[in-house]
Amino acid sequence: MLSINRVMITGRLTRDPETRYLPTGQAVTKMGVAVNRRFQDKNGEWRDETAFIDVEAWGKVAERCAETLKKGRPVYVEGRLKQESWEKDGVKQSKLMISAERVTAFDVPQRGDSGGGEEDLSEGSSAMSRPQARSATRPQTTGAPSDNLDFSNPNANTEDDIPF
User: Fold this and answer.
1) Residue 34: which H helix or E strand, with range?
2) Assigned domain for 2 exists
3) CB–CB of 121/68 below 8 Å?
4) Residue (of 128, 8, 113) closest to 69 by Cα position
5) CA–CA separation, 141 and 85 (whole Å)
6) Per-residue pLDDT tens digits for 117-157
7) Average pLDDT across the chain, whole number
8) What's the structural domain count of the chain?
């Protein structure tokens, strides 16, 4: 059976990252990320839902996060889900968190701004010391799939390549 454990989120840090070092010298940084979802309820009113997610980073990624990130900063986090379990007062407890393999901090452009910068904090990234500015112009897209298949006609013979 195929098992996939991959998570990608964007959100804002809910607190400053907290870093500690293991006896081996390896850094571990813990942070919280708030992820917002905007949706229309059954009455047609717009609602906001926020999920608060714990994230941990290890090694060089942890050190870079601790050096650069602050509460409120928008981030992109990519990693895997990890379940942590413990016992408190005889009661077993557990929680899911993200073990980050990649963390990218970015700036949200304001109206009239030419774009924001982003900074990849992942191991092996050369973008750590210099934020990259985004282009002010975006390529024009038609919204059509790149292979020009027409999915608007339900009777059209459009074979997909999904293996399941």
Assistant:
1) strand 27-40
2) no
3) yes
4) 128
5) 47
6) 666 777 665 443 334 444 444 444 455 444 555 555 555 55
7) 80
8) 1
What CATH number did the domain enclosing 67 receive?
2.40.50.140
Is 70 a member of any domain?
Answer: yes
Longest dimension (CA), the chain: 64
What is the dihedral angle through the alpha carbons of 115, 99, 11, 17, rounded to the nearest 10 degrees?
-90
79 pLDDT more than 70: yes
Judge whether 73 lies within some domain.
yes
Residues paired with residue 79 on neighbouring β-strands, in sequence order: 7, 100
Give the chain's radius of gyration (CA, Å): 20
15 is a domain residue:
yes
Listing DSSP states for 13-25 in one string gives ESS--EEEE-TTS
Question: Domain residues for 106?
Answer: 7-110
In 3D space, the residue among 19, 47, 49 whose CA is nearest the CA of residue 34 turns out to be 49
Q: What is the pLDDT of residues 43-75, one digit of tens each?
A: 999 999 999 999 999 999 999 999 999 999 999
Angle at 121 between CA 11 and CA 20, to 5 degrees: 90
CB burial of residue 47 (10 Å; 0-12, 13-18, 19+): exposed
